[in-house]
Design brief:
Layout: H1 24-33, E1 48-49, H2 61-67, H3 78-91, E2 95-99, H4 102-113, E3 119-122, H5 127-134, E4 139-142, H6 163-173, E5 181-184, H7 197-210, E6 214-217, H8 221-231, H9 240-249, E7 253-257, E8 268-272, H10 275-288, H11 299-312, H12 315-334, E9 347-351, H13 352-355, H14 365-377, E10 379-380, E11 382-384, H15 386-389, E12 391-392, E13 399-400, E14 406-410, H16 418-433, E15 441-445, E16 456-459
Parallel strand pairs: 1-10, 3-4, 5-6, 6-7
Antiparallel strand pairs: 2-8, 7-8, 9-14, 11-14, 12-13, 15-16
Helix pairs in contact: 1-14, 2-11, 3-11, 4-5, 4-10, 6-7, 8-9, 12-16, 14-16
Bound molecules: ligand P70.
Length: about 475
């Protein structure tokens, strides 16, 4: 990449936040207190926080200035109208319903449109989408193309849904039992891989033929659009804005966590075209989230989202963003670390089962690796594997594990510098050198849904096994 390692930051730093690395002993103590769960470690005890790219973006001076223009009227805040217009302009949907974050948009949509025993396909459901459907007795199916489960297959648009599988699924389950089809862009549970425009179009055509609504889980829509511009033929001359408009023109609506590609710390929305459905969604919104012109957000939050949505579709921002993720991926690849390929949009994913082949799946290798990375360098990451998606088989009582056992190094937007990325790579490489000493884990406490957030774990030593 010419004389720089990745495109230069198209911004400079105006405000900073102090971070500190604890001593090895202090980190060890933090792990014990947390029950060996990185979600329970206070952020002050984390040096580099790669737990998530959600709600962790650095806002721009324009967004902060927007915060001061917040109109906190209960009804009809001027920031709502700006927010609504921005979402309409960028995504092209008619109705815009603010929510406090993505999962609230999911819950409202699912409560209004699904029933027990329904089936909902996705390329791969992410944790909150799956949980919000399963809690209603809906059966979730992941229909991503088979290659997505081959972490070494270095192909483009690995997030694409398998169109044959989708047609077969609709045929088997019958369209009347499928309230909608969803596609997640980018595919967060499968390496943050993009979905091609061609695939979005194909899914849409099938849905329209079968009269099944089609929704996009849009959290990382701009990153997805950047991949389309860069790698899909016919799009290189189009602007990100044009590509985004086209992507969503094929859908009936979208759920959005603004905490990702709207560059804010809180917020979300639901957007749909159907008038009758919008009315029902708004009525549901009012019960729990708030009135239709704020939906659980302050006026100032809606202003920051509006400004963030305009910034995130800027070409130079995206070039730097995706370049930064690719840079870290490249450093690790060069060092021989097992990685999900190719480099995705918002994170680098380590293959925990290959990193730690001596730890069996029922001892949660991805979990072990998150603990090892914190131990080594105070880096917080998240396991996307057996702890997040494992399920007990109702007949055998045995745990069934998902195909991928990943550790995600999510890169917050506009937050870390190249020297941070170098430190992250060094820490992963050091951990890899010591991998044979890393042990598995057993569960001491788990909740019935989304257990990874609150589980307490115990390290499996020869003495306590
Ligand atoms: C993440 C967070 C949130 C998310 C998502 C997709 C594709 C909906 C949502 C819900 C969640 C998380 C996971 C591990 C650690 C910390 C946080 N994803 N759809 O980091 O949105 O959080 O706003 O309710 O990725 O990927 P919201």
């Amino acid at each position: 990449m010419c004389k720089h390692d990745y495109p230069l930051e198209p911004y400079k730093i105006k405000s900073i936040e102090r971070i500190q690395k604890l001593s090895r002993e202090q980190r060890e103590k933090a792990l014990i207190i947390s029950g060996y769960n990185v979600f329970s470690i206070p952020s002050e005890k984390v040096f580099i926080d790669l737990l998530t790219d959600s709600g962790t973006s650095a806002m721009s001076d324009s967004q902060w200035a927007g915060i001061m223009t917040g109109d906190e009227s209960y009804a009809g805040s001027r920031n709502f109208y700006h927010f609504k217009k921005t979402v309409q302009d960028i995504f092209g949907f008619k109705h815009v319903i603010p929510t406090h974050q993505g999962r609230a948009a999911e819950r409202i949509l699912f409560e209004v449109t699904t029933h027990q025993g329904d089936f909902v396909p996705n390329n791969i459901h992410f944790d909150t989408t799956r949980a919000n459907l399963e809690v209603r007795g809906v059966l979730c199916e992941d229909l991503v193309q088979e290659k997505a489960y081959d972490p070494e297959a270095d192909i483009l648009f690995k997030g694409d849904m398998d169109i044959n599988k989708l047609e077969q699924f609709i045929d088997e389950k019958r369209p009347e039992n499928i309230p909608f089809v969803m596609v997640t862009i980018t595919n967060n549970s499968g390496g943050g891989q993009p979905v091609s425009m061609g695939n979005i179009k194909d899914v849409s055509q099938i849905c329209r033929k079968q009269k099944i609504p089609f929704y996009i889980d849009a959290c990382r829509f701009a990153e997805n659009a950047y991949f389309i511009k860069k790698y899909e033929s016919g799009y290189s001359h189009k602007s990100i804005h044009e590509i985004v408009k086209e992507m969503f023109s094929y859908a009936d609506g979208a759920t959005m966590s603004a905490k990702k590609d709207a560059l804010v710390n809180i917020g979300g929305f639901l957007a749909v075209n159907d008038d009758e459905l919008a009315l029902k969604l708004k009525n549901n919104l009012i019960i729990s989230e708030g009135f239709a012109t704020y939906g659980g957000l302050a006026g100032r939050d809606m202003e920051a989202i509006s400004r963030g949505l305009k910034e995130v579709i800027e070409q130079d921002y995206l070039e730097h963003r995706i370049g930064q993720v690719g840079y870290l991926w490249g450093l690790l690849k060069k060092a021989g670390i097992p990685l999900y390929a190719p480099s995705g949009g918002h994170a680098v994913y380590l293959l925990a089962d290959q990193f730690l082949p001596h730890i069996p799946r029922n001892e949660y290798p991805a979990w072990s690796l998150t603990i090892a990375l914190y131990r080594e360098g105070g880096i917080r990451t998240v396991g996307i594997g057996g702890m997040m998606f494992g399920k007990k088989d109702s007949k055998t009582g045995q745990e069934i594990f998902p195909k991928l056992e990943l550790v995600r190094l999510a890169i917050p937007r506009r937050v870390y510098t190249q020297s941070h990325l170098n430190f992250i790579a060094d820490t992963v490489i050091q951990t890899y050198k010591k991998r044979r000493d890393i042990k598995g884990f057993r569960i001491v406490y788990q909740a019935p849904y989304l257990r990874h957030f609150t589980a307490r774990m115990e390290e499996i030593n020869l003495t306590n096994s």
